[in-house]
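Suppose you are handed only these lines of text.
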Amino acid sequence: MRLTGKTAIVTGAARGIGYHISRRFAEEGCSVVMADLSEAGEETSKRLRETGADAVFCRADVSRNDSVEELIRFASKKLGKVDILVNNAAINIPGSILELSEEVWDRTYEVNVKSMFLMSRAVVPGMQAGGGGSIINLGSANSYVAEPRLAAYVSSKGAILMLSKAMALDFSPQGIRVNCICPGWVDTTFNDLHADLFGGREEVLKDIAQIHPIGRAIHPAEIAETAVFLASDEASAITGAGIVVDGGYTAK
Ligand SMILES: NC(=O)c1ccc[n+]([C@@H]2O[C@H](COP(=O)([O-])OP(=O)(O)OC[C@H]3O[C@@H](n4cnc5c(N)ncnc54)[C@H](O)[C@@H]3O)[C@@H](O)[C@H]2O)c1
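From them, the structure of the protein bound to nicotinamide-adenine-dinucleotide can be written out as follows.
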């Protein structure tokens, strides 16, 4: 087991990529606090516990500092220390800048970017005191390449890649590694609103060979494998990296 004795907070863990990261971390011997705005996390964490996982749910809105502070209090009580933080929660509301409201713009940046600032600054002092840690931020292939009618989302994902690099520079001397996983099209419901603008999810999935040279969508479990690697000591020399897990999408 690659994460034995380690502890983690995973945000946006009620479903999708966050759920699979929590599942794989637990399988590798890690104790996990699964945080999410959605109460559905109660059920998904229960499902994991039934398989023997040490995983508990905590409802939190990671875009709000008061909620983050409550989450950190809960996690400190449950875990004692936090070795790994996965900043995964995000929203994806499509539109060009002429289609997006100011409220949607602000909310996108609060949930996607500000949450990483709030969560990381709450966890880093404990990691510094404990001699190190691993922070994994979920960027996107859109951290590198844009897409039509996705202005708020792609720009927020660009910011996350640079935030990851800035944090890596600031905290590497204290043994805290910060990396950014940048997935291509992962088969969750996350992209549905954007896909609706282009004929719906099924239509977009038919074009997947054009989108991904590997000819298929990515499974959330494939993102989770990269997260396990980055969280583990196997990645001890990797920090400040953007790691694309995109089926070749950004190679074109
Ligand atoms: N699905 C993809 O194709 C894809 C591609 C590239 C990057 N990503 C990134 O991967 C991450 C996870 O994506 P996913 O596909 O699993 O999405 P998802 O929609 O399935 O899961 C996101 C989770 O975040 C939670 N969440 C939203 N706002 C929150 C808040 N304020 N506080 C706490 N939790 C909140 C949601 O309730 C949900 O459970 C995101 O950062 C996303 O940008 C996804």
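What can we learn from it? The longest strand covers residues 176-183. The radius of gyration is 17 Å.
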